From TrEMBL:
Keyword entries, A-Z: DNA-binding, Transcription, Transcription regulation
InterPro entries attached to this UniProt entry: ArsR-like_HTH (IPR011991), HTH_ArsR_DNA-bd_dom (IPR001845), HTH_MetalResp_TranReg (IPR051081), WH-like_DNA-bd_sf (IPR036388), WH_DNA-bd_sf (IPR036390)
Alphabetical list of SMART domains matching this protein: HTH_ARSR
Protein name: ArsR family transcriptional regulator
Source organism of this protein record: Mycobacteroides immunogenum
Chain ranges of the HTH arsR-type domain: 1-86
GO molecular function, one term: DNA-binding transcription factor activity
Annotated coiled-coil segments of the chain: none
Pfam family of the protein (one): HTH_5
Length: 112
């Protein structure tokens, strides 16, 4: 399953978001997300197969961690857009600052 299909499901996104805050076992995920054990296990299997999460066996528990690079295809796809948006927002900030400076200078001129 490709990375976009992985994040297409809202339950998987909730699991990913939860694991972003730290590792968790299935019981913790069930409690935090208020989901059934079978649903959490099903989605964890998909996430594990996609390489989005990794599992560590700790005694009788399976602890899930977000992978070091969980969604590389998504990041590669969105990065050019992020750069474009960031650049456009930087230009807008500059224009707004310049406009504010002009406005402030006009106020000072009318006071003199």
């Amino acid at each position: 399953m490709d990375a976009f299909m992985v994040i297409a499901d809202p339950t998987r996104r909730r699991i990913i978001d939860t694991l972003r805050g730290g590792s968790a076992d299935v019981t913790t995920l069930i409690e935090q997300l208020d989901l059934s054990q079978s649903l959490v296990s099903k989605h964890l299997g998909v996430l594990r197969d996609a390489g989005t999460v990794r599992v560590e066996v700790a005694g009788k528990r399976r602890v899930y961690h977000l992978a070091d690079d969980p969604l590389p295809a998504v990041l590669a796809w969105v990065t050019p857009y992020h750069r474009t948006w960031a650049s456009a927002l930087d230009r807008l900030t500059t224009l707004l600052d310049d406009n504010a400076d002009i406005h402030d200078n006009k106020k000072e001129d009318t006071r003199d």
